[in-house]
Every structure is written in structure tokens, then in C-alpha cells.
Amino acid sequence: AKAGIGLIGLGTMGSNLALNIAENSVPVAIFNRTTETTHEFARAAGPLAKRIVACETLEQLVAAIEPPRAIILMVPAGPVVDEQVAALRPLIEDGDMIIDAGNANFHDTNRRAVEAATNGELFLGIGVSGGAEGARHGPSIMAGGPREAWDRVAPIFEAIAARYEGTPCATWMGEGGAGHFVKTVHNGIEYADMQMIAEVYGVMRDGMGMSAPQCGQVFARWNEGLLKSYLVEISARIGEASDPETGNPVLDIIADRAGQKGTGRWTAIEAQHLAAPVTAIEAAVAARNMSAASEVRAEGERIFGAAPRVLENGALSIDDLEAALIAGKIVCYAQGFTMIARASAEFGWALPLPDIARVWRAGCIIRSSMLNDMATALEANPDRNLMFADFFSYLLKAKHPALRTTVAAAAQNGLPMPALTAGLAYFDIMRTERSTANLIQAQRDFFGAHGFERIDRPGQYHGPWGASG
Ligand code: NDP
């Protein structure tokens, strides 16, 4: 019998995805640029090897798959995807489908979707989240492309996806790059979520003098409550882990320069294009860049001296930090969903906001116990800022004072909190009926005669700025 699906690229994600597919009873044909990897993989597949067809050429791969074929690409985003599509194009037949399951920029996916349609091919862009573990045992899957193409392969993707109370976390988001767009925003939220956790870790480590295992224990306790989430859970395990060689906490020996592959940056850039403020995400991307500049930071510490950092006893409690993180997290998700709603209107998609919250409930990196309530709130009103939904406004009313106290104490003592601070400012702006943009409008009119509206009558006006204006 022929394979039910093909997969190209046996790296971290592809190898695990292939095993996951095979485990779900679908024979999978595999190909990798480095042939030795293909054979090693098949050898190591154990009992699953009987559902794996190792191929040494793309011709063999195509021949091994039952038509109409579906072939997953799990290669680095960017030109490699175009190269693989171009290499497959002469080999595949009408009705065959190419599925890019890497972290593509959704603009590229939009372009590839148009190119594929022109060539009479089916093309899906699928965002897969959950890292290696997710790929192996159940990722969260965000699909984009022709609906009928998705319907054809959905049974396979639903079978391999994570499940939340029995419901597969695999959803079609819309045409073209819709799936990769949603995956991008997922990653943007991931950046902000991680950064906020790191910021309260900084308060515990530097402000409160807590050891890494002590911080880990706090995360473990938080993981029993509203903050229950994958990222808090792994932060607990990270804090408690010790280096086998030295016996020291692993966290203490890891260099403080964060890497990135660009999805957070794409979110921030796209948010600017969409005029959708995702300030916590933008702050998190910038924080990674600042972390990478470790020599500049060291010079800064030499010139200005270290900030006091240590908090006075009782200035902040662990409960304050927990509440701050809850409030910050709500704000960050509210920003992410607002951006998705904006993109939906802008790009002519009908992005299903409640379903997006649902698809993130399991399998993905930002899975969190709050997402089920977010789905409920977005179901009731997808166009309303999530901060205003009953459950979340109730939570924010209870928790924002602690966010304020935390940000204030951190600022007083030189503990940087870019994401939580940005989140707090967003919250405060979004609860301020009269902003200060009246002055901005006056300035714009003063130097550029841009005009302004008045609060007391309709129409456009200019100010009495005189000859200097
Ligand atoms: P890896 O670096 O582990 O694997 C890359 C794979 O692509 C390898 O099989 C490699 O083959 C192949 N490859 C690289 N360059 C080329 C090329 N020029 N031509 C043909 N094949 C090539 O990557 P990951 O598995 O981590 O990532 C794959 C995709 O999934 C990326 O888009 C990534 O952003 C995305 N992703 C990754 C996640 C993760 O946690 N790692 C999570 C979610 C998405 P070879 O063996 O010959 O080098």
C-alpha cells in the first residue's frame, strides 16, 4: 500500500511530526536533503518503521504517495520553501497538494498561494506550535489555504493534533496566509508571555534575593492557579533543575542573551502596519534585542553603576507578582486578539476568534487555563476588547492594582519591566476617556495645519496660532 502523506525535512519538527503521523496509523513517505538522516530516522523508528517509507529522491517520494498526494514541507522558512516547491512542481500531478508547515511569513504564504493557484496546485500554509514535544505527541495546528484542500487532509491533522477535552486543536483559519498569520500572532503572544514571566523572575532574583529553585517553587505554586500554563510550568521545572556537572542551578549558568527567529518581530511589524497596538509584544521583542547587547549593558553598568535592584522588605509580595502577571497576561492576550480582529477586517479574512482561542488551549506554547474563558468571551463578542469581557474585567479590577504596585516598585529600584510596564500603560490608556491627544492634535495643526475636531461642535478647525503657526 502507498503512503497516505509525504514529508520533506527530518529536522527537529519534521522527524517528530513523521513519527506522530505514523503512530496515528497513516503510512508516511519521508525525504530529507541529507540522505543519511533519512535512513537513520527510519532505523530509529522502532515499531513505527513499518509505516515509514524512506525515500532517497523526490521522485521516489512522489511515487510512494497515494494520489491525490499531500506533501508536508518541514524546512526552514524562507527561500528553502520556494526551492522545495519548485523542485516538486514538475513531479506532482493535478490535485496534489503541498503543505508548508514551517513558520513562514504569512505574506510569503499569500504569495505562494497565488502562485500555486495559478499553477493549478493546492497549497496549504499551516502553523504548527508545540515544539518538538508537541510535534511528536500533539501540536496545535493553524491552517490556511483553500477550504476544500484543508478538508481533504484535516482527518490526518486532527488525528495528530493535541486534544482539549477530546476536541482536536487543529482549525482552518481562512484562505492564503491566514494560518501562518495566526501562528505568527501566537508567537508574538509567546514572546510577551515569556518576557513578563522573566520580568517577575527578575524581581524575585534581584529584588528579593531568591534562588533559582525558590523561584521555581513559586512558579510551581502559580501553576496551580489562574496562571496555570505551559510556560509557567516549564519555568518551574527550569528553576528547579541543577547542572549535572557543577550541581549549581542551571538557570544561573545560562548566558543572558535571548535568541529569536523573527516571528515576534513579524508580529510587531505587522501590528504597526495594521495600527493595532500590541505594546507588550513590541516591548518583548525589543527586550530580546537589548538582552543580546550584553557588552553595551556591561558598559552601562560601569558608567551608571548598578541600579539598587534590592527591594525593601515587604515592598512587594509574591502574591503581588502573581496578580501582576495575571493582569499583564490578560492585557497581552487582549492586544493579540485585537490585532487578529484588525487583520481579519484588513485582509478580508473571517478569522474565527473564539476558535483561535480554542485551538490554543492545548498543544501550543501559549496554552493556558485562561484560554477557555477567552474563547467563551470571544464567542459572546469577538469585536470587543477582551479586557472588557465580564470575566476578564472582573479579574483586571481585582489584579491591576498589584500590577501598578509591582511596576512602580520595580521602576523605583531599577528593575526593568518593559512588557509589564507597556501592558499597564495600555490598560490605563484604554480606561481613560479623555486622553492627552488633544495636545498632539494642536501641535499637528500648529506646525502642519492638519486641523482638528472640537468637542463642542462638529467640523474641522484650525487654532489661533497666529503667524508662527
Ligand atoms: P531543523 O533545523 O531542525 O531542520 C531543518 C530541516 O530542513 C532539516 O531536515 C534540513 O535537512 C532541512 N533543510 C535545511 N535547509 C535545507 C535546504 N536548503 N534544502 C532542503 N532541506 C533543507 O528545523 P526545525 O525542525 O526546528 O524547523 C522547521 C520549521 O518548523 C521551521 O520553519 C521552523 O521555524 C518551524 N518550527 C520550529 C519549531 C521548533 O520548536 N523547532 C516550532 C514550530 C515551528 P538536513 O538534514 O539536510 O540539514
Please, could you describe this protein's structure?
- It is built from 20 helices and twelve strands.
- The chain has an eight-stranded mixed beta sheet, sandwiched between helices. A two-stranded antiparallel sheet has the order 8-9. Strands 11-12 form a two-stranded antiparallel ribbon.
- By secondary structure, it is of the alpha/beta class.
Q: What is the tally of helical segments?
A: 20
CATH topology of the largest domain: N-(1-d-carboxylethyl)-l-norvaline Dehydrogenase, domain 2
Low-confidence stretches: none
Beta-strand percentage range = 5-15%
Helix content: 55-70%
Structural class: alpha/beta
Number of domains: 3
Radius of gyration: 25 Å
Distance between the termini: 80 Å
What is the overall silhouette? Answer: globular
SS elements, strand count = 12
Chain-averaged pLDDT: 97
The CATH homologous superfamily of the largest domain is named N-(1-d-carboxylethyl)-l-norvaline Dehydrogenase, domain 2
The CATH class designation of the largest domain is Mainly Alpha
Question: Which properties best describe this structure?
Answer:
469 residues, alpha/beta, Rossmann fold, N-(1-d-carboxylethyl)-l-norvaline Dehydrogenase, domain 2, Single alpha-helices involved in coiled-coils or other helix-helix interfaces, 3 domains, 8-stranded mixed sheet, two-stranded antiparallel sheet, 20 helices, 56% helix, binds NADPH dihydro-nicotinamide-adenine-dinucleotide phosphate
